[in-house]
Amino acid sequence: MTEEQEKRTVTIALENIESDFLEKRRYYEDEGERLVYEQNQLNRSLDEFADSTTYYLRKFGVEESELSSSRRMIENGREELLYEIHKERQRVDNVLEEHKMSYQKERDNLEEQLLEIGRE
């Protein structure tokens, strides 16, 4: 293989890994945005649920201690769900970081190959 062919092969490999990395990055960034959206939707839904629950419990004359208990239950559920969303967001961030590190390592190796070809 000529030097020019080797350079072209390595350059194509660089383009391919960059394209692959950008595709994966977009996917995981979209996944992160989806989780933020779901978190916001969850908060709105739970706020509406808490308001409705309070309204109906008051309407039926439930004691204040029972109202407080129902609010605590809703808040505990909210905290658990938000914690799970947070864990998933961390997982997505970690996977994205792993892909970034892998891409950079592979890119550095290919760039080093290009330099080696030029030295030969």
Describe the structure.
There is one protein chain. With 120 residues, this protein is an all-alpha fold. The chain has one domain (3-114). 94% of the residues lie in helices and 0% in strands. It has helices at 3-59, 64-119. Helix 1 runs antiparallel to helix 2 (64-119). The protein is rod-shaped, with a radius of gyration of 26 Å. Keywords: Coiled coil.
Per-chain topology:
Elements: H1 3-59, H2 64-119
Main beta-sheet strand count, sense and barrel state: none
Radius of gyration: 26 Å
- Helices, by number, come to 2
Uncertain residue ranges: none
Distance between the termini: 13 Å
The computed structural class is: mainly alpha
Secondary-structure element series: HH
State the domain count.
1
Helix content: over 70%
Oligomer: single chain
Q: Overall 3D geometry?
A: rod-shaped
Portion in beta strands = under 5%
Keywords: Coiled coil
Coiled coil: 78-120
Q: TL;DR of this structure?
A:
This protein has 120 residues and is mainly alpha-helical.
List its salient traits:
coiled coil; rod-shaped; mainly alpha; 120 residues; single chain
